[in-house]
Amino acid sequence: MRQTYRIIVIDDDPITRMDLVEMLQDAGYDVVAEGKNGEEAVRLTQTLHPHLVMMDVKMPGMDGLTAAELIQKSGQAAVLLLTAYSQNEIVAKAKAKGIRACLVKPVLEEELLPTVAFVLSDLSQIR
């Protein structure tokens, strides 16, 4: 039996969120929650214990890098960052915070699904 992975999707753009959720659900993933900022990402991770949190870097309030750092420190979930910027500085910050992967938006299904599978492939380091 294939394991069902729980995923939270966080992005301040509702259209982007909707697209990501649809792609993930069509691939058989269980999207357990959605949110629009880093505060929601941290809170939802603490209450729902997902395997993966996918979130945007630039959001109002707490940004994705700050939220990712808090989630990574707690060891509660893997983090996959989404960004509209492919700048080396953002990649370096994400790597320093233990982020498993980054994707540049707009995210295409043929990039998203293999990246999600890769991030989820080694959950032993998370749990």
Remind me, CATH topology? Rossmann fold
Rg calc = 13 Å
Inertia-based shape: globular
Q: What proportion of the residues form beta strands (DSSP E)?
A: 15-25%
**DSSP, total strands:** 5
- From the coordinates shown, what is the CATH architecture? 3-Layer(aba) Sandwich
What is the assembly state of the chains in this entry? single chain
Task: Report the CATH C-level class.
Answer: Alpha Beta
pLDDT < 50 runs, ≥5 residues: none
Which range best describes the helical content: under 10%, 10-25%, 25-40%, 40-55%, 55-70% or over 70%? 40-55%
User: For the terminal residues, how far apart are their CA atoms?
Assistant: 20 Å
Order of helices and strands: EHEHEHEHEH
The major β-sheet equals: 5 strands, parallel
Give the tally of structural domains.
1
SS field, number of helical segments: 5
The assigned structural class equals alpha/beta
The CATH superfamily bears the name Response regulator
Strand order of the largest sheet: 2-1-3-4-5
Overall residue-averaged pLDDT value: 90
